[in-house]
Amino acid sequence: xxxxxxxxxxxxxxxxxxxxxxxxxxxxxxxxxxxxxxxxxxxxxxxxxxxxxxxxxxxxxxxxxxxxxxxxxxxxxxxxxxxxxxxxxxxxxxxxxxxxxxxxxxxxxxxxxxxxxxxxxxxxxxxxxxxxxxxxxxxxxxxxxxxxxxxxxxxxxxxxxxxxxxxxxxxxxxxxxxxxxxxxxxxxxxxxxxxxxxxxxxxxxxxxxxxxxxxxxxxxxxxxxxxxxxxxx
Length: 233
Fold this sequence. Notes:
Blueprint: E1 9-13, H1 21-28, E2 32-35, E3 49-54, E4 57-62, H2 82-95, H3 101-113, H4 120-134, E5 140-143, H5 153-163, E6 168-171, H6 181-186, E7 190-193, H7 215-222, H8 226-229
Parallel strand pairs: 1-2, 1-6, 2-5, 6-7
Antiparallel strand pairs: 3-4
């Protein structure tokens, strides 16, 4: 008698600071999204920064995390609280004329002013869950720190997928450099690749249009229509 296994589509990713729309599209397409923050913190990456549009072109919003790169993401502490007011002011200055800025203003302002954030991972995960709520994404969340993972790179990912009972793993094309389709075939976990290439343009301030900016750009410019832009179901 064959054992029946419920299908469970899973994605795994490090938490990023106010990520771009593709990050949320990935979350929306799976049953479970696992924050993978007990891995090494990397320099000049998306963990502590993202881009927004301004009248003078793209601008980085960067969280102050110090220069020690021999840390796990979950152990990275934010260096001071000055950035909280600074980041809010930059968002306000550049998006106050966006059609839906006022719709989300208090929600985001509260993130920057109601709490002093100590850990990068805690802030990132809070913002991601908050934005998923705005987009009505119903995916469940887990944290890789809750599992006693073994091995490195591919072995570690497979170990995590088995522990959360995944039947399918959805991941970005960058993972092709270290994931083996044969390994997943042997583990009876379907490996599928995320396609980020067909997003629609939307009403965006400060032309020319750029896709690779923080999700806040889409929210402030399109409001609830952001769900339609991303084809969220």
